[in-house]
Amino acid sequence: MDDLIELVRSYRQAGALADRTQCAEAIFRIIEPKISLFVYGAVRSQLAEDVLQEALIGIIKSMHQFTGTTGEDFVRWCR
Question: Please, which residues have CB within 8 angstroms of residue 19's CB and are 6 or more apart in sequence?
C-alpha cells in the first residue's frame, strides 16, 4: 500500500500530462480490483462495466480532495 500512496503523491505533483497519465494508470491497476468487487456486487451486470469506468474517472477527477496519508486511507476514500 505504500506504493499506492507514493503514486497518488506523484500524480498530484506531476506537471506533464504524460506523467499524470502514467501515474493514473498505475493507480487504476491497484485499485480497480477493489472497486470492481464493490461495483459488481451493487449493480446489475449489464451496467457494471460502465459504472466501474465512471467510478474510476470520478476518483481521478476528485483526487485533489483526498487528505489521507496512507494507501489504506486512499482505498477507503475511493469507496
Answer: 10
Q: What is the reported pTM?
A: 0.80
Gap between the Cα atoms of 2 and 57, Å rounded: 22
Residue 14 corresponds to which cell in the numbers above? Answer: 506531476
**d(Cα 58, Cα 54) in Å, to the nearest integer?**
6
Helix (H, G, I), strand (E, B) or coil at 7: helix
Q: Quote the CA–CA distance of 34 and 1 in Å, as a whole number.
A: 13
pLDDT digits (tens, 9 = 90+) for 10-53: 999 999 999 999 999 999 999 999 899 889 999 988 899 999 99
